[in-house]
């Protein structure tokens, strides 16, 4: 154990304020850096790594002390050692001694809630087992087919205009459309619920009302499925032997909906932005050296949707990365800094070639159980979008792109794009740059085949996974056994 030169997470030396007018902006008591005042968190993490090594003492709002874990190995050790570190914030010393006030800006991340994210031990196993089993019941191929259709619907809304803003018109909508379908409430998906989720996360003055709106949808869904189960996520959550009560079910639906919405919207926006602004990235995709899933994985390394998770808390005095951690200390899971730890990535610009050992989904007992759903939304969403709009390009200078950054995440504000206007496509067809037109509805009086319409070629048999509503001849079908197999496997 390395002796500490000072006691950064204690309040012993809080009198060392910089003098008035001190140029050391962002430096607080004890000479520690205030994370929330850093103009560039990546640069600050680099600096902290040089100054302190893999675990550094920093300050949150109101000069609340915390450790930020920068090392890949140290973060993994923390999340995989539940005997020493817990997600239960109620043991955090600054919370217990009143240093963290109830109106602390990070309270939504800190306040303990009766959901699996904050639980541990047997209670965590009980709650998480229900979530994991509900995720496992989601049919992967049917999900991919649904994501393809949801993408088609969204692209149809702007494809004829030749321009779009992909954060608000695509990246924020696709995960919500998919998750409303997965949970079993497709009728609740609309602009209002996307707006409510966005509003809730931004913490505006209407955030409480927005949270209530979402909770009301989820409580009604819980009551409906309790009375009459169906084959969807919510019914599996309710019927799991863990025996979640109605409030536990609705609260877990909220965790799932919001985690999926926020993280996947970020992942989609980040991956598309990278394709549009990095010529090498796009060339690799177009040339087949990189697949869309590999591009998504690269984005999870370089721009993880959650840059940190607040937090983990020490259950006993221990040591991490050569630092003495006291019982009750708080630690930020440093996902973004861990992903660029020079010990695992000596060249931070190197292509990770689909390597999945980044920490974007964390690890250990709390590792994200929905990662395959998040990946599927990003893979199919990006691939279908690029297929529909192959000449997609940025409609502003790259330097004009803006982000909102917090300690927890970084959001692209807008992603304006241009492309050659395209006709709408049948949502049940596989996305294509050369679509067949949407089939016209037949007049009700017409019987038999119209003589001017050529007979469609015979189709391969439908995949057994879900009934397709594709109209005969309306969908572009892949030819050849291999492509048919691929088509069936991808589910759209
Ligand atoms: C790209 C998309 C996603 C990313 C980057 C992501 C990332 C994460 C991270 C970093 C955690 C915290 C783990 C910890 O506390 O150490 C987490 C937890 C969680 N995520 Fe995800 N997530 C994504 C999508 C989803 C989806 C689609 C679902 C649901 C279907 C989901 C459900 C959850 C749940 C329930 C937890 C809490 C697990 C527990 O504490 O046991 N996530 N996620």
TrEMBL record:
InterPro entries: Cyt_P450_B, Cyt_P450_CS, Cyt_P450_sf. Residues 454-464 have a biased composition (Pro residues). Residues 420-478 are annotated as: Disordered. SUPFAM superfamilies: Cytochrome P450. Belongs to the cytochrome P450 family. This is Cytochrome P450. It comes from Streptomyces thermogriseus.
């Amino acid at each position: 154990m390395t002796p500490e030169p000072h006691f950064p997470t204690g309040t012993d030396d809080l009198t060392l304020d910089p003098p008035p007018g001190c140029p050391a902006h962002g430096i607080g008591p004890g000479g520690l850096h205030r994370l929330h005042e850093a103009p560039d968190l990546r640069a600050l993490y680099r600096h902290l790594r040089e100054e302190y090594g893999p675990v550094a003492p920093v300050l949150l709002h109101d000069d609340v002390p915390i450790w930020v874990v920068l090392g890949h190995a140290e973060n993994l050790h923390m999340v995989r050692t539940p005997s020493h570190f817990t997600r239960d914030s109620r043991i955090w010393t600054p919370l217990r001694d009143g240093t963290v006030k109830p109106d602390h800006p990070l309270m939504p991340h800190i306040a303990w809630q009766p959901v699996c994210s904050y639980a541990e031990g047997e209670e965590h196993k009980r709650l998480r087992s229900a979530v994991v089993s509900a995720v496992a019941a989601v049919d992967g191929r049917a999900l991919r087919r649904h994501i393809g259709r949801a993408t088609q619907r969204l692209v149809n809304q702007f494809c004829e205009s030749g321009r779009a803003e992909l954060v608000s018109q695509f990246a924020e909508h696709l995960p919500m459309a998919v998750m409303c379908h997965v949970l079993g409430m497709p009728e609740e998906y609309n602009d209002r619920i996307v707006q409510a989720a966005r509003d809730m996360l931004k913490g505006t003055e209407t955030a409480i009302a927005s949270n209530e709106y979402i909770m009301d949808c989820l409580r009604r869904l819980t009551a409906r499925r309790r009375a009459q189960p169906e084959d969807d996520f919510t019914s599996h959550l309710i019927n799991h032997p863990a025996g979640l009560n109605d409030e536990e079910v609705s609260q877990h639906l909220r965790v799932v909906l919001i985690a999926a919405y926020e993280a996947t919207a970020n992942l989609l926006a980040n991956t598309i932005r990278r394709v549009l602004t990095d010529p090498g990235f796009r060339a690799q995709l177009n040339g087949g050296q990189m697949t869309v899933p590999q591009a998504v994985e690269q984005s999870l390394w370089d721009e993880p949707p959650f840059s940190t998770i607040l937090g983990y808390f020490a259950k006993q005095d221990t040591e991490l990365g050569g630092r003495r951690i006291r019982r009750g200390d708080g630690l930020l899971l440093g996902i973004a800094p861990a992903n660029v730890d020079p010990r695992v990535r000596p060249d931070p610009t190197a292509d990770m070639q689909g390597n999945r050992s980044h920490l974007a989904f964390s690890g250990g007992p709390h590792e994200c159980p929905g990662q395959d759903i998040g990946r599927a939304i990003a893979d199919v969403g990006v691939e279908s979008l690029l297929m529909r709009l192959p000449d997609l390009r940025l409609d502003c200078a790259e330097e004009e792109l803006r982000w909102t950054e917090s300690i927890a995440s970084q959001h692209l504000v807008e992603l304006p794009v241009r492309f050659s206007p395209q006709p709408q496509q049948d949502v049940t067809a596989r996305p294509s740059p050369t679509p067949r037109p949407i089939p016209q509805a037949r007049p009700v009086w017409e019987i038999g085949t119209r003589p001017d319409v050529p007979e469609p070629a015979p189709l391969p048999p439908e995949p057994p996974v879900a009934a397709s509503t594709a109209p005969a001849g309306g969908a572009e079908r892949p030819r050849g056994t291999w492509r048919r197999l691929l088509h069936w496997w991808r589910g759209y």
